[in-house]
Design a protein that fits this description.
This protein has a two-stranded antiparallel sheet with strand order 1-2. The protein is built from 10 helices and 2 strands; from the N terminus they run αααββααααααα. Strand 1 and strand 2 form a beta hairpin. The chain folds into 2 domains: 63 residues, Winged helix-like DNA-binding domain superfamily/Winged helix DNA-binding domain (Arc Repressor Mutant, subunit A, Orthogonal Bundle); 141 residues, Four Helix Bundle (Hemerythrin (Met), subunit A), CATH 1.20.120. It starts with 11 loop residues before the first helix and ends with a helix. By secondary structure, the chain is mostly helical. Helix content is 73%, strand content 4%. Helix 1 packs across helix 3 and helix 5 packs antiparallel against helix 6.
């Protein structure tokens, strides 16, 4: 897990946002927890001005909720929220896969393959933060390859709210290994321009993620 270090003044709020995003996704700030500005300022070695700007940006991403009389808190979803969110997200990912298989360029496919190989290296090292970062980039790249800006916007908005939950689904070794196998099948289907197959794989992948999240929530581990 990356150590929190002092941040340079270059694009300060963007760097603060990236650090805070990682803390939220990786569970170092728990769902429902209040973002304590004093503690975070000290931890990140920045003043409250760029910190507050970063928090506002994360709120627009869906990772933080700004609540009256409570301030900023890490987003916390109910089981019903999870069911509804993954239901929509599965449909969007399936559509992304079908369109991407039709519209992806050779350069885009090469980039996704490279990301996949790097992700596999992280899996081999059991580097979960690195793996998740590359995993998210692969899903984002497939979504972008669909070349539908309305789809991209909807996907990014909805996916942001379940990032921390998706991260935790790979903390179980068997389920992590299954997710890796599913990604290998996705890259193969994309390489073959098999839109129907890729759409189905992405839909099933999201169903598996949803079920794992619900299991974690029911056991009190999410």
């Amino acid at each position: 897990m990356a150590e929190i270090v002092a941040i340079s003044k270059l694009a300060l709020h963007d760097q603060v946002r990236a650090r805070l995003r990682a803390m939220l996704v990786e569970g170092r700030i728990l769902p429902g927890a209040k973002l304590n500005e004093r503690e975070l300022s000290e931890q990140l070695c920045v003043s409250r001005t760029p910190l507050r700007e970063a928090i506002k940006l994360l709120a627009t991403e869906g990772l933080v909720d700004l609540l009256p009389n409570r301030g900023a808190v890490a987003v916390k979803l109910s089981q019903a929220d999870v069911l509804h969110t993954f239901e929509v997200l599965g449909g969007l990912e399936a559509m992304s896969g079908e369109l991407a298989a039709q519209r992806i360029t050779d350069d885009e496919l090469t980039e996704i393959r490279a990301l996949h190989y790097d992700m596999m290296a992280c899996f081999t090292r059991q580097d979960l933060p690195g793996y998740y970062s590359l995993n998210a980039r692969i899903h984002g790249a497939i979504n972008a390859a669909a070349k539908n800006p309305v789809l991209v916007s909807a996907y990014q908005s909805i996916n942001a709210r379940v990032q921390s939950l998706r991260f935790r689904t790979n903390q179980n070794a068997a389920k992590w290994k299954r997710a890796v196998k599913e990604h290998e099948q996705m890259v193969q289907a994309l390489s073959e321009r098999d839109g129907k197959g890729l759409g189905q794989l992405l839909s099933e992948h999201l169903i598996n993620k949803r079920n794992t999240v619900l299991d974690l929530m029911q056991s009190g581990d999410a």
